[in-house]
Structure formats: structure tokens, C-alpha cells
Amino acid sequence: MPLDLCGNERCPLCYRTPIQSDDINHPSHYTQGNIEVIDFLESQPQLDFRAASAIKYLCRYKLKGAPLKDLKKARWYVERLIKEYENA
Fold this sequence. Notes:
Elements: H1 12-15, H2 37-42, H3 49-60, H4 67-86
């Protein structure tokens, strides 16, 4: 099979093929749609850890069975980021 744009065979990012979930490498709450959240986050170098973590929780809050818990985790990271800018 020929290599795709990133040098892999059938990369989900290049071919937009559905990602097969498994509990370790691709948990189902990370594989909704055609791109995993981590792939998006790694393509955004301007995001720091807190912003990236908030996005991660917002992307999956309906998928793990505890939406309010994940929304509160996202808020916690956003509030820490806001405090940094308020104190700058």
C-alpha cells in the first residue's frame, strides 16, 4: 500500500477514515468523528496545557457517562488560565 501524506499507511488524518477504538490507544470517547482530539491539539502549538486540557474535556463531556464532571474539569482549567491573565 502506498504511503500517505504523513508517511503512514492509511493515516486517519490524511484519509479521514473512521478510527478503530481500543481501550489503550484509541478509547471510544476519543475516537468520535474522523480525528482524535490529541491530533487536533498537537496541531495547535499556541495552546498551553490548560487550554488543551479544557478543549479535551469539552470534546468528550457527553461520551463518558458523567457530563457534568467533565464540564467542571474544563471550567477548572479555563479558570486557571483566566487567573493567569488577570494577574498579568
